[in-house]
Amino acid sequence: MAETFGSTAHGAGRAMSRGEAKRRVHGEALLREMEARGIIVQVASKSGVAEEAGVAYKDLKAVVDVVHRLDISRKVAFLTPIGNIKG
User: Fold this and answer.
1) CB–CB of 72/4 below 8 Å?
2) Number of structural domains found in the chain
3) What distance in Å separates the CA atoms of residue 82 and residue 15, rounded to the nearest whole number?
4) Which residues are catalytic?
5) Domain limits at 74?
6) What are the two backbone dihedrals, phi and then psi, of residue 57, each rounded to the nearest 5 degrees?
7) Mean pLDDT, rounded, of the chain
8) Can you give the pLDDT at residue 65?
């Protein structure tokens, strides 16, 4: 508690900046990939999808494992997202 001020990771964290993600991920291709997986996406900007691509973030399992191993937080459940709103 003292080491973390009572806080823990609230997400995986970015592995690359939004700008880098926009340069490396093609929004149109990502939308097709997501559609093939049954994910419905409605966006005003395809580059907005690219900056939030999964590859732009650190591996969530690795982050959770670290905070669990260091006794910062405990793993209690695995949740599967059913939606995401960005705006």
Assistant:
1) yes
2) 1
3) 23
4) 10
5) 1-82
6) -115, 155
7) 88
8) 94
